[in-house]
Every structure is written in C-alpha cells, then in structure tokens.
Amino acid sequence: MSYLTPYAVSRPASVRPGRRGARVDEQMLLNRPAFDGGAHVRVFVEDTSNRKLRRRRLPSPRLKLRIADCVNEINLEFSLDSAELRENSLYKIRTLVEALERFRAGLAAEAELRAPRELGPVGTSSCGLERPGYLDLQVRGFESRAGATLR
C-alpha cells in the first residue's frame, strides 16, 4: 500500500517493523506529532508464498486496511478468494486512491487560497513586486517530492 504514503507523514522509529510472512505490514501516523491524537492508517497484506494447500484449499491471505482518526475507525474488507472478488478488491482500492488524490488536490488548492487571505489584502512591497502567496512554495515543493501535480 505504498501508494498511500504521500498522504501520511513518515513513520517514526517507534512503530514496529513489518513481521515475517507479511508483504506489507505498516502503521503510519496521519498527523504531525504536535497534532497526534491517534489518527493512523494500518495496512497488512499477508505473504502466502510459503503456505501449503490444506484440505485442497488455496491459502487465503489476511488483508487489513484500517483508517482511523482521533475518534472513528473504518476497516475496509478485501478478498482474493475468487476472480470476481479479486477484481472488485483491486477496483475498490484503485477508486479509493483516485478519490484521495482528487481530495488532496482540492485541499491543496483551498490551502493555497486560504493562506493569503489570512495575511490580509495583497499589497505591493517597496520594490513594487506583488507579495507571493504564503503556501506557493510549500505546496509546489510537496508536489515535486510526491511526484504528483495539482489539477
């Protein structure tokens, strides 16, 4: 689930590393430390490559995607047990990622609009140059680090 990492801050060293037998096993905090109230994303995808057939049944990996804020928590269900369920699970996560990307673009645009408003009316400096928006550099810097562009 590494495609969710642009939406989260870096994982602190205190979070336990991934377990053996897991393709993905991470918990990422969603807020900066000063704002942390427990909001996080927890992702887990079991690696079944070493599991054997039991009673002629294919191994079904444990899959976990939990998104929590300070009060609420959602657990999304995914399954790979049939072709239709695999297709639906991939569709579900693709749709979620696309929605998050659109939300990020809208949030960044509103943040860029909000910052100059907090500073008051846009004026000119003594050189006659217009003052840039407060978040112009921050938002554009984020875009280049994340490899995404705002639409």
Number of strands: 4
Relative strand content:
15-25%
Order of helices and strands: EEEEHH
Q: Strand arrangement, largest sheet? A: 1-2-3-4
Q: Give the mean pLDDT.
A: 79
Radius of gyration: 21 Å
- Major sheet details: 4 strands, antiparallel
Q: Find the structural class using helix and strand composition.
A: alpha+beta
Q: What quaternary form is this?
A: single chain
Please estimate the helix content. 25-40%
> N-to-C terminal Cα separation, in Å?
23 Å
How many domains make up the 3D coordinates? 2
User: Stretches where pLDDT falls below 50 for ≥5 residues?
Assistant: 9-16, 124-131, 133-151
> What characteristic shape results from the CA principal axes?
elongated
Number of helices: 2
Describe the structure using short key phrases:
alpha+beta, 151 residues, 2 domains, elongated, disordered C terminus, 32% helix
Account of the protein in words:
This protein has two domains: 1-77, no CATH class; 79-151. It is α+β, with helices and mostly antiparallel strands and 151 residues long. The protein is elongated. It has a four-stranded antiparallel β-sheet with strand order 1-2-3-4, with no helix packed on it. A hairpin with a 4-residue loop joins β3 (63-68) and β4 (73-76). The chain has helices at 83-119, 136-146; strands at residues 22-29, 40-46, 63-68, 73-76.
Quick structural overview:
By secondary structure, the chain is α+β, with helices and mostly antiparallel strands.
